[in-house]
Design a protein that fits this description.
eight-stranded antiparallel β-sheet, six-stranded mixed β-sheet, 26 strands, FIST_C, Histidine kinase, FIST_domain_N
């Protein structure tokens, strides 16, 4: 049996159009709705909980910097995904709580059930992201593949971004159980140009000092060797999107961290950077990023053929970092075209532009990534 009953997209950002897409999904037999909502919508998201509560099926939504449909991306609009089965899901609130509390809550929700795969949507600017992902891994184990991304807004303002029939939430996380396993393709394309440097003071996602010097002046001094323009509060993202930070992992790949805001002399990243970690300054070129995304799709195609015997009836989710789209600008359509070309049967990419990406590694560990293309594939039940 197929997993999706239908996928509908609207690009106006109007509540009336979202309502129409939901009605179409219901007409197509949806038993569960997952909505990706572009952050430049034309309505108050507080209108969504009563709408979801009025539906005959469960529904949840995340607000993201953008949505992806085929070879296009949109900062306003919605992607409405209808599933053929009533998926098993939960929301974890206030995720900066102690790990033991979150782990116990996940175990109570699972109640002995073992999902075949999982989608995780999380407030991409919350504290404690890596801790809650560790809790999810501890409960699901290395055999269950996970795909997801960070919800949030294009202007990086921190406000409610996850929505259920019960309300709108920030500092929260959705876990959605899937009835079939996930295959994954993951690539980023960023390379080191300077480092390593020692993070000498950090708390969660805030780097306070590097090599015993205030973090921002140190970082700016390094990238001034490659970029002549000084960084200020007006051009911070315009410059830092080209020079992310990288931490070397056991597989010798960089775990990328995106500098998203400056707080005095400290740097806020999308995702935690542990104290005493060695970091590198990274950079890339548009053609390398575009090629890396295509490699992620090609990797997914290979993984799908190993996970599923039946080589048809696939569905895919593309989770791509908003900063890749900002970096590539008008060339971003080439990245989506390259993904489509490598997907099984040249399926049109669908998904979201995110504040951080979530994927299981080849070793099974779930990681919160930045500036990375993650593509998940599902077969039929």
């Amino acid at each position: 049996m197929k997993i999706f009953s239908s996928v509908h997209v609207e690009t106006t950002g109007l509540l009336s159009e979202l309502h129409r897409m939901i009605d179409l999904a219901l007409e197509n037999g949806a038993k569960y709705l997952l909505v990706f909502l572009g952050s430049e919508h034309e309505f108050d998201i507080e209108e969504l909980p009563p709408l979801f509560a009025s539906l005959p099926i469960p529904a949840c939504a995340g607000v993201f910097p953008g949505i992806i449909h085929d070879e296009m991306h949109y900062h306003k609009g919605a992607l409405v995904c209808g599933f053929t089965t009533p998926l098993f899901s939960t929301i974890l609130k206030e995720i900066a709580r102690p790990n033991i509390e979150i782990t116990n809550e996940i175990k109570q929700w699972l109640d002995g059930k073992v999902p075949a795969g999982a989608i995780v949507l999380i407030d991409g600017q919350s504290k404690g992201i890596d801790n809650v992902i560790t809790c999810i891994y501890d409960c699901l184990g290395p055999a269950i593949s996970v795909l997801g991304g960070g919800a949030g807004y294009l202007d990086f303002s921190h406000r409610p971004c996850l929505i259920t029939a019960q309300g709108c939430y920030e500092n929260a996380c959705f876990i959605i159980s899937l009835p079939v396993p996930l295959a994954l393709g993951v690539r980023h394309g960023w390379e080191s140009i300077a480092g390593p440097f020692l993070v000498t003071s950090a708390k969660d996602n805030l780097i306070q000092s590097i090599n015993y010097e205030p973090a921002f002046p140190f970082y700016e001094g390094i990238i001034r060797e490659y970029c002549s323009e000084p960084i200020d509060f007006t051009n911070f993202l315009e410059i830092t999107k080209c020079y992310p930070l990288g931490m070397v992992q056991l597989d010798n790949e960089y775990l990328v961290r995106d500098p998203i805001q400056r707080h005095g002399t400290a740097i806020e990243c999308a995702g935690s950077v542990p104290q005493n970690t060695l970091i590198y300054i990274l950079n890339s070129q548009p053609d390398i990023l575009i090629q890396s995304a295509a490699k992620a799709a090609k990797e997914l195609r290979t993984q799908l053929s190993s996970v599923y015997e039946k080589q048809e009836g696939y569905y895919t989710f593309t989770i791509d970092c908003i900063s890749r789209q900002l970096f590539l600008g008008d060339q971003y359509c080439k990245e989506l075209a390259g993904i489509k070309k490598e997907l099984p049967n040249q399926l049109p990419p669908i998904g979201a532009l995110t504040l951080g990406e979530i994927a299981s590694s080849s070793q099974g560990v779930i990681r919160f990534l930045n500036k990375t293309t993650v593509i998940g594939g599902l077969g039929s039940e």
